[in-house]
Every structure is written in structure tokens, then in C-alpha cells.
Amino acid sequence: MAPRVPEEIDVFTAPHSRMKELVNIYTRKMRCVDFRDGPEVVSLLKDLDTTLCEFKSHESIENIFIMDQLKNRLKQRQISNAAVCDCHNDNQLSDVGTQRLLCDYKQVVQLVRRGTQVRERSLGERITYGHQLQQAFQDFVNTFLPHMEEEEQVFQPLLVEYFEYDELKVLKEIVLKEHEVV
Ligand code: FEO
Predict the structure, then answer these.
(1) How confident is the model at residue 91 (pLDDT cuts 50, 70, 90)?
(2) Can you tell me the distance from the alpha carbon of 182 to that of 174, in angstroms, rounded to the nearest whole number?
(3) Which of 12, 30, 116, 123 is deepest in the core (most CB within 10 A)?
């Protein structure tokens, strides 16, 4: 486990607390929702759509304000780091990073979009759809949680190594502010 860094320069833990809170909320909702109940499903999908946007924004903020800065710093110092190049490398999600996470994220987004016609479906189709959505969300969670863990355990130490304390303090303030305006 990477050594703990002072809270004021820890750019990942606070935003990740919010992301993990959302993951827990929707993991519970997915278990409880009655997919036979059209209005209940429509309400879940509406909320989930907003939350997926929040996940996407989180990744976008990290891309712009953390990963790009780290890449530039390593480039300036002519240091090559494969992990930095590979993480958050797919701009289509703007971005959830690894290909696996991107794929799982897109799967949930597609199902949420398809689910808007849930009222027009038969009972059996609703239940099948519910199982697909539950599985897709669980797959996404199973990649998103380790992804955040990697950021905290691998990328935070790199930031500490290659940035000054005051730079990271400012960076953290920016990252928190960007999350607030989402
Ligand atoms: Fe902090 Fe890339 O999730």
C-alpha cells in the first residue's frame, strides 16, 4: 500500500468518496427496484442517467487537471511511464480510462437509453432487461472500484514525486472546485 499523503495534497480521495457513495447508492437501488413496475424503473433510469454523467465528468476532470499535467511533467523530465500513458487514454468517454472500464461504462449507458421504452414492454421483457442492467452495472462497478484504487495507490505517489507540495495544494483546490460545478 502506498504511504498516506497529507489530505491537503491528496487529489483523489475526496472525489472518490463521492463516486463510491454513488456506486453504493445505485448498487442498493439495483437490488431493490422492481423491474415489473414501469414508473419505478423510469425514475431509476432518470437518476442513473444523471449519475453516469457525474462519473463521466469525474473522469474528464481527472484527465484535464491531473493526468495531462502528470504526463506533461514526466515528458518535461524525459521520464517514460507506461501506466500514465495507458490510464485515461480513451477520449471517447472523456474519459473512464482503461478500455475495460470504458466498455463497461458504455454498456450501462446503452442499456439506460434502451430502457426509456420500458413501459411499452411485456413483463418478461422488463424482467430480462432488469437482469441485463443489474449485470452491466455490476460489471462497471467491478472495474470502476479497482480503477479508483489504482489512481490512489499509483498515481497519487507519482504526483507527490514529481510535483511540489504547493503545486499539489493548488491542484487539489482546482479538482474539488471542478467537481462542485458539475
Ligand atoms: Fe477517479 Fe478515473 O476515476
Answers:
(1) very low
(2) 13
(3) 12
